[in-house]
Amino acid sequence: MSDHPPPADSTDSRSPLDPHHDEPPRPPFLQQHASQRIGIEQPLRISVINDYEVIVSGVTAMLRPYPERVRVVETDVGGLPTERADVALFDTFGGQRSIVTRARQTMANADIGHVVLYTWSADADLLAIARASGLSGVLSKGAPATELVDGLERIANGERVGLDAPLRLAHRGPQSPHATAAETGNLTPRELEVLAMLGLGLSNRDIAEELFLGVETVRTYVRQVYQKLGVKNRTQAAVRARVLGLEPASERRTAS
User: Fold this and answer.
1) Which of 13, 16, 141, 241 has the greatest number of CB atoms lying within 10 Å of its CB?
2) CATH number of 181-243: 3.30.870.10, 2.40.160.40, 1.10.700.10, 1.10.10.10?
3) Rounded (10°) angle between helices 234-243 and 215-229
4) Helix, strand or coil for residue 233?
5) pTM for this one?
6) pLDDT tens across 156-184, in order?
7) What is the pLDDT of residues 116-147, one digit of tens each?
């Protein structure tokens, strides 16, 4: 519950919904990916799950340049994976607690090898739930695409990744090929997430419960969203959320 609002990004001109990550050259000893070093079967079968089509599409786009290493066999918006997969990747955008509940349900599916959270931040409470639920890993949405693929390969090989150290809030937004920085008002990742949840009509308390935050922290985020988007109330914010494609497959109205 110690998450604090991130400072506004004033120097980064990239769209906060840009699906492409700038990646510096990797040292030669890291250029051989995990599956080559360990010998796991390729390409890995990946399911991508979230409540928002724009988010699922963005994650799929990130993985597309690596067809010899990973293959997205299923994208599920608002439900649970049903196809056989080496890894079910649950993007937590729009409701960490609700997504974690669905990830835990997926653990009972014998056709899914590993269940993983893909998130901007993970505090000690979220990590404790992930460990207790038997999830295989927590991967950062702030990492380059190559690190995401590396993490998926490590997890598929049986390594538990990202379950110990809390993950600080990254300062980039969810993947979408559609929205521009001007359209989003340069919202931070957390502000975009709060905007999406305002679009559901959730109260500040419901949002706080979903995101493992304090109510006062959520109020601060809501004020920042209003200011950056130039809106005056929750109704106007909800309209902007839908314009940006932040409309879920199902209308989740209360925290699970």
Assistant:
1) 141
2) 1.10.10.10
3) 70
4) coil
5) 0.78
6) 999 999 999 998 876 554 444 444 444 56
7) 999 998 999 999 999 999 999 999 999 999 99
